[in-house]
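QA checklist item 7 of 12: single-chain prediction sanity check.
[x] sequence parsed
[x] length recorded as 337
[x] structure emitted
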Amino acid sequence: MDLAFIPSPSRGVLHLGPLPLRGYAFCIIIGVFVAVWIGNRRWIKRGGRSGTVADIAVWAVPFGLVGGRLYHVITDYQLYFSEGRNWVDAFKIWEGGLGIWGAIALGAVGAWIGCRRRGIPMPAYADAIAPGIALAQACGRWGNWFNQELYGKPTDVPWALKITSTTDGRVPGTYHPTFLYESLWCVGVALLVIWADRRFKLGHGRAFALYVAAYCVGRGWIEYLRVDDAHHVLGLRLNDWTAIGVFVLAVVYLVLSAKLRPGREETVEPGAESDAAEAEKAGGKKAEKGAGSGKAAASEAPEASEAAEKADVTAEEKAEDAGDKDGEKAAAPAREG
């Protein structure tokens, strides 16, 4: 009898009237917002303009979604094009199925287009968004939990995942929650990149390369635990070979980049520094105007008080004169009588 386990949601979609809210899509959307928010903060610290990361994400995100779906459909084509399957399901992205390798590859193409339009060096942009991408993956992996998919081998550990669905040949039971393992690993990768970037001042794409290499290490052992259908080459799952190849490329880039282009970019966005300087000048002028207005008010205050005192004195004198005249008028009839 299992004493503890992670329960699976009874359903992966919540209907708000006629509008379906799917857990998988919701996790991806949250991940995109997290990546853009963190990337924007890091970009500003590097000397870029606020909003630039979001502008380029408008290109990168759609390309990434298409690339992730293409990789999944190509590597798992039997799910959509084999006998008894409906090829139209290949377009149902909300039901799950995004390959991170395709998402990063084609997303980079979209980011390159956005960077080129803004005159921004692509490596600097990649360094800024690297931790955010890792955290976006951490959020997105929870979409697999909603869909009860991509779990690992059977286990009875206290943190086992309870699978209840029988769709597509699933067997109810408790399994390794590989979605949770990868989510936690991605959080660790993000923290590693942030630390290394602060410690070693990574530039020219090296922070992004570190993210890629670190993620591949984790993906390798997590992939080993998974039991879903996959193509095997020489006894290893296809994604394992992909992780090994991408890891080697990332390490090679790290080494060569450090030798050929040491240090960090001094300017990441043309014109951003001049904008900041103008903003500071504008703020200084406003402060000076405020101080000048304060001095003028202070100098006018004594004059106003003197005028008020003079007005009071004049009023008193007028009142006294009026009183004297009234007294004289009242005394005149008395003398006459």
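[x] summary fact logged: Residues 9 and 117 are 43 Å apart (CA to CA).
[ ] second reviewer sign-off
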